[in-house]
Amino acid sequence: MLETDDIAQLKALILTQQEEIAALKAVVADLTARLAQNSTNSHKPPSSDGLAKKFAIKPALPKEAGKKVGGQPGHPGKTLQCVEWPDAIHNHQATQCQQCGLPLQGEGQIVARRQVFDLPQPRLWVEEHRLMAHLCACGCVQTGQFPVQVTAPVQYGPRIEAQSVLLNSDYRVPFAKLSQFWAELTGYAYNPATLVSTQATLHEQLIPIEVQIKAQLQQAPVCHFDETGVRVAGQLQWLHVASNQDYTHLFVHPKRGQEALLSTQSVYGACHNWTVHDCWASYFSAGNGRHSLCGAHLLRELAALIEQGAKWAGAMHSYLLDAYKASRHGPIAAVEQMRWRTGYEALCGQGDEEELPALVFFKADGRTGRAKRSKGRNLLERLILHQEAVLAFAFEAGVPFSNNQAERDLRPVKVKQRVSGCFRTASGAAVYARIAGFVSTMRKNGRNVVDQLASVLSGSFVWAT
User: Looking at the 3D structure of the chain, how many domains does it have?
Assistant: First the structure.
């Protein structure tokens, strides 16, 4: 028979093994879930899916059935149209008759025409400013003054500066490539140091414009917020965005959470209307706005649980899509909202039965421990806690289903990272953020970006609300 001490040792060994098994199961489940991640069930971008994209569940919102491929009715279109007064005309006419061989007389009649749209041979337009002197009758010599923007014997004008800034910041053309581009196009290599100086000047000139953009976002009925990691001077920092369909504000901050959201750079703390964002906890603990959670994020998380066999996740996935369809043309009527809320709470109850709470186990030293909660349990508790924020898109006018607006406004910096890898200095990152926010805002308002950048550089920009 086993001695008492042996039994105690075996019990201790069993408890230790149970603890190790629970930990190993959690590790295996976590690694398995990581291997199964793709753009349909996580925050990974579609570019990470590879060439074989064979996924059963798509997180994208369903498209309306029956639409034809191509532009939809009412779309303005951008097809080339013949102009009434072309810059050059070339008449092509026959010289002799193909039937009898006699030479043809006169100019003939136009029977068809075709137009070719192209760029003229580019060259730099040089304007010379001359300082004139006059001798007064009293014997005093008077001279004129150069324009304030003309500061050197030779310099670049605001339009080539604006185009260079746009090509570098928005189109991600590296400094050396940009210099080579202008040399091949015009015969003049735009010095990279000149571009750096121009961007620094523009960064300062955009300060009052950025203040107005922030003021507009603070007063907007709905504002989208998001952030993404960027490498700045070898360190991880965060590019934050606040935007809507008309305005974009970007800034770089060393922190991701409350410190950044409540900083003077951010508009989050001053927004008192609807704020659309993901479920990052700092958004709920900072600011005074009303919260709306991104439904696209929730669909992706639910899709991952569906792949693991969670029935409640499939039902909640269908529920959110049905709510989206029901509210696509306006919020669900007040008399129907209680039924939708009851359905939501019933699904959460179903999930509570399926997603077991974290199990309590005994450690070898006699203390109790709690296993790590599953991703399903974490998601379920967020859905219960933030029910009003989850359903805001269905019950409130003007609140969108997803945070796609902010994600679209952040996407350019991810492309820039793929090209450049990082920002070498904090000042360079700040310059990029302010210029990118201005460019995005001008595009959203249908204004020519090159013209607006040139007007800022020349000091003639006028804000049109």
Answer: 2
The tens digit of pLDDT for each residue in 361-408 reads: 555 555 655 556 788 889 999 999 999 999 999 999 999 999 999 999
The Cα 383–Cα 379 span in angstroms is 6
What is the pLDDT at residue 109? 87
Question: Cβ(45)–Cβ(414) under 8 Å?
Answer: yes
Burial 435-465 (b: 16+ CB within 10 A, else e): bbbbbbbbeeeeeebeebbbbbbbeebeeee
Q: What are phi and psi of 252, to 5 degrees?
A: -105, 135
| Residues 6 or more apart in contact with residue 49 via CB below 8 angstroms | 38, 39, 55
Same structural domain for residues 276 and 211? yes
Question: For residue 180, what are the CA distances in angstroms to 160, 187, 191?
Answer: 14, 9, 9
383 and 333 part of one domain = yes
Q: What is the pTM of this model?
A: 0.82
How many residues are recorded in the chain? 465
Could you list the residue range(s) of the whole structural domain that residue 419 is in?
204-293+403-458
Do residue 391 and residue 413 come from a single domain?
no
Classified as helix, coil or strand, 2 is coil
Q: Which residues pair with 292 in a beta bridge?
A: 276
Give CA–CA dist 279/180, Å, rounded: 45
